């Protein structure tokens, strides 16, 4: 989309800073010097994502302030993808980029009904921001409205109205979802460790990366990325489907993800039990 708009995409990856049988998504960080070096007089916009997919990293206030300061210094707009905002665990807390000093006027915040209400088939979301930025989004939006019929818009609007009235109560779906997902996450961590994989425990979202290089397997010799070949091997040999995370990376950085696969734990307990059985038999 950046190229279609006539722009030049510039990428910067999160990199792991720790090793071990179990690490945290918080251990993956941006290099400050590298980040600052990506900004110059031609930089117009940064696309930012917290909680992050595929890692599940929840950026801290310090990390976000560093990005915000660079945006202000170079007069850059921030598109902040925060669709997993209600799914954070433990001490990790979601912070809206637009809430930082001086950032409201230069931030478009992206939300998702599919993620917020667990109806991912409803391709409906929203942008929040100042009028001068939202008007630009409206120009593009009027030409790409294909999956937001009136019934789903009305359903989402009513859901939001109801959940606003429930915030801070035990009935709130927005806050109870993370509580429901936490034991699923922790159970998957243990199953992966027992199977000889090294999970990266997510602070947010419902995906989990895991290093699979401790397992023994023989992959076909093709031009495909290593994680793609491993995913195909896992499906064919173990009947377990996962996602190759290098698909989320630019060509220059995809090697950072080639030793990982992405699991999803927002599943029915029966499905997770089947996956657990496969992992146990593999261990």
TrEMBL record:
<dbReference type="GO" id="GO:0005739">
    <property type="term" value="C:mitochondrion"/>
</dbReference>
<keyword id="KW-0808">Transferase</keyword>
<dbReference type="InterPro" id="IPR015422">
    <property type="entry name" value="PyrdxlP-dep_Trfase_small"/>
</dbReference>
<dbReference type="InterPro" id="IPR015424">
    <property type="entry name" value="PyrdxlP-dep_Trfase"/>
</dbReference>
<comment type="subunit">
    <text>Homodimer.</text>
</comment>
<dbReference type="InterPro" id="IPR015421">
    <property type="entry name" value="PyrdxlP-dep_Trfase_major"/>
</dbReference>
<dbReference type="Pfam" id="PF00155">
    <property type="entry name" value="Aminotran_1_2"/>
</dbReference>
<dbReference type="InterPro" id="IPR004839">
    <property type="entry name" value="Aminotransferase_I/II_large"/>
</dbReference>
<dbReference type="GO" id="GO:0030170">
    <property type="term" value="F:pyridoxal phosphate binding"/>
</dbReference>
<dbReference type="GO" id="GO:0097053">
    <property type="term" value="P:L-kynurenine catabolic process"/>
</dbReference>
<comment type="pathway">
    <text>Amino-acid degradation; L-kynurenine degradation; kynurenate from L-kynurenine: step 1/2.</text>
</comment>
<feature type="domain" description="Aminotransferase class I/classII large">
    <location>
        <begin position="20"/>
        <end position="275"/>
    </location>
</feature>
<protein>
    <recommendedName>
        <fullName>Aminotransferase class I/classII large domain-containing protein</fullName>
    </recommendedName>
</protein>
<dbReference type="GO" id="GO:0016212">
    <property type="term" value="F:kynurenine-oxoglutarate transaminase activity"/>
</dbReference>
<comment type="similarity">
    <text>Belongs to the class-I pyridoxal-phosphate-dependent aminotransferase family.</text>
</comment>
<keyword id="KW-0663">Pyridoxal phosphate</keyword>
<dbReference type="InterPro" id="IPR051326">
    <property type="entry name" value="Kynurenine-oxoglutarate_AT"/>
</dbReference>
<keyword id="KW-0032">Aminotransferase</keyword>
């Amino acid at each position: 989309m950046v190229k279609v708009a006539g722009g030049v995409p510039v990428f910067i990856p999160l990199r792991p800073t720790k090793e071990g049988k179990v690490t945290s998504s918080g251990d993956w960080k941006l290099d400050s010097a590298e980040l600052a070096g990506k900004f110059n007089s031609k930089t117009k916009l940064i696309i930012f994502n917290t909680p992050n997919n595929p890692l599940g990293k929840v950026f801290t206030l310090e990390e976000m302030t560093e990005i915000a300061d660079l945006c202000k210094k170079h007069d850059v707009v921030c598109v902040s993808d925060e669709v997993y905002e209600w799914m954070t665990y433990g001490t990790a807390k979601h912070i809206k980029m637009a809430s930082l000093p001086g950032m409201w006027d230069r931030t478009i915040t992206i939300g998702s009904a599919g993620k917020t209400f667990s109806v991912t088939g409803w391709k409906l979301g929203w942008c929040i921001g100042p009028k001068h930025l939202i008007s630009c989004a409206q120009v593009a939006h009027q030409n790409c409205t294909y999956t937001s019929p009136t019934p789903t818009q009305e359903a989402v609007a009513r859901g939001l109205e109801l959940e606003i009235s429930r915030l801070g109560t035990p009935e709130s779906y927005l806050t109870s979802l993370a509580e429901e997902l936490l034991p699923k996450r922790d159970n998957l961590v243990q199953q992966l460790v027992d199977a000889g994989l090294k999970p990266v425990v997510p602070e947010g979202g419902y995906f989990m990366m895991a290093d699979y290089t401790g397992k023994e397997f023989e992959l076909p010799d093709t031009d495909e990325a290593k994680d793609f070949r491993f995913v195909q091997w896992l499906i064919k040999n173990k009947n377990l489907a996962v996602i190759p995370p290098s698909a989320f990376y630019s060509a220059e950085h995809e090697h950072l993800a080639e030793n990982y696969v992405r699991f999803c734990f927002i599943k029915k307990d029966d499905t997770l039990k089947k996956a657990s059985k496969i992992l146990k038999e593999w261990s």
